[in-house]
Design a protein that fits this description.
Distance between the termini: 11 Å
Number of helices: 3
Oligomer: single chain
Strand content: 25-35%
Number of strands: 4
Largest sheet: 4 strands, antiparallel
Shape: globular
Order of helices and strands: EHEEHHE
Radius of gyration: 14 Å
Helix content: 25-40%
Structural class: alpha+beta
């Protein structure tokens, strides 16, 4: 069964997120360390919900894996990715691991 990992970066007051660094540098690290195990990846940038409504999230990264073994292999090589987080944001990312059902 295919699995997904979503890394969610909340946009709370006072937090910052360097999207250029994230796309250019961090996602290159993702490709280097997790690329062989990834079935797909997608980055979504949050947009405001109105003139006075900031996006609830800076970004959400979605990674899919063919199966549990592929996800576990990717996660076992993810330490450099975790160490890189302070280089582009000061928000605490949340993660959701789930079964791909549709």
């Amino acid at each position: 069964m295919a699995l997904s990992l979503q890394v969610i970066y909340p946009n709370t007051p006072g937090t910052s997120f360097d999207m250029d660094y994230y796309l250019d540098t961090h996602m290159s690290l993702v490709d280097k360390h997790m690329g062989p195990q990834l079935a797909s990846s997608l980055v979504t940038r949050g947009v405001p919900g109105g003139p006075d409504t900031p996006p609830p999230f800076h970004a959400i990264a979605t990674f899919t894996f063919a199966d549990k073994a592929a996800m576990e292999a990717a996660m076992s090589s993810s330490q450099p990715l975790l160490a890189d987080i302070p280089n582009f944001t000061d928000t605490a990312p949340q993660m959701l691991i789930g079964e791909v059902v549709a």
